[in-house]
Write a structure and sequence with these properties.
The chain is α/β, with parallel strands linked by helices. It contains eleven helices and eight strands.
Length: about 270
């Protein structure tokens, strides 16, 4: 991300630890060189994490401090490190966070879409079948989604999102967050898929997908209302409490519930 995003505290920590652990040591060395930090950088990625974790735990046991960084954004959300953090917790090693920029929350904050609640889905599977299954699971969630998209499959993944999440769902596609050329394209998922088909993607993208349109529920019947009140009363609530609980369960106001019950009594 933007070099200016690195906090003063992060600079101090990176300069004091024994090793800096990173998936791509070349990127991290550029960062360290920029701030004249001379700490040794060691590689930690999905192909060596199982082997490296015991060695890193042994180093921590000697009293050394280590720093785990991400190529961009927050560690673990897109890069390896979960195994190490979990192993440290299980061993009783102290794990501290040095907060920094996060593409997921940064995109959510500037997307103009409902921020709470949201689900972060990370990167989509590369294979079409697995990607479709993952999107089908996310499609059942009634709130905002945040996904990371690969520039190499941008048009393909946006088309899949439109097909599985809903072509008319409002979305925002963001790239180069906090950098000089930060940009955002807004529209429906179908419109973004069309845009991506003619674009030349650069960098990784963060997609924020707004919640699906709520399907209005049919109004409850008088009998359903009576049963809801009876069930609430059976749990020990007084009359007023039972009415409040029943109205919440039926997703109607207490006035609407009272009207339903009165109409039934008038029959």
């Amino acid at each position: 991300g933007n070099l200016a995003d690195l906090s003063p505290r992060a600079r101090v920590v990176l300069g004091e630890v024994r090793w800096v652990l990173a998936e791509d040591t070349r990127r991290v060395r550029k960062l360290l060189n920029h701030f004249e930090i001379h700490t040794t950088v060691r590689s930690l990625h999905e192909h060596n994490e199982v082997r490296e974790v015991p060695r890193l735990l042994a180093e921590l046991a000697t009293g050394s401090d280590l720093a785990l960084v991400s190529d961009a954004g927050t560690p673990l959300l897109a890069d390896p490190g979960y195994r190490l953090v979990r192993a440290c917790r299980e061993r009783g090693c102290q794990v501290l966070t040095v907060p920094g920029p996060s593409a997921a929350t940064a995109a959510l904050a500037v997307s103009g879409l409902p921020p709470i609640p949201f689900t972060f889905g990370g990167f989509l599977p590369a294979k079409g079948g697995a990607r479709g299954n993952a999107l089908d699971e996310l499609a059942s969630l009634p709130h905002t989604l945040v996904l990371f998209l690969s520039p190499h499959r941008l048009a393909l993944e946006l088309s899949a999102c439109a097909a599985h999440l809903g072509r008319a769902r409002e979305a925002a596609l963001l790239a180069e967050l906090t950098k000089v050329h930060e940009r955002c394209v807004r529209g429906t998922l179908a419109e973004l898929a069309v845009w991506a088909a003619g674009a030349q993607p650069l960098g990784e993208y963060t997609l924020v997908v707004g919640p699906p349109e709520a399907v209005p529920l049919p109004p409850p019947s008088r009998e359903t209302a009576r049963v809801a009140v009876d069930e609430a009363s059976a749990r020990g609530l007084d009359r007023a409490g039972a009415l409040r609980e029943a109205a919440r369960t039926l997703r109607i106001t207490r006035k609407e519930l009272y009207t339903l019950l009165m109409r039934r009594d008038e029959r």
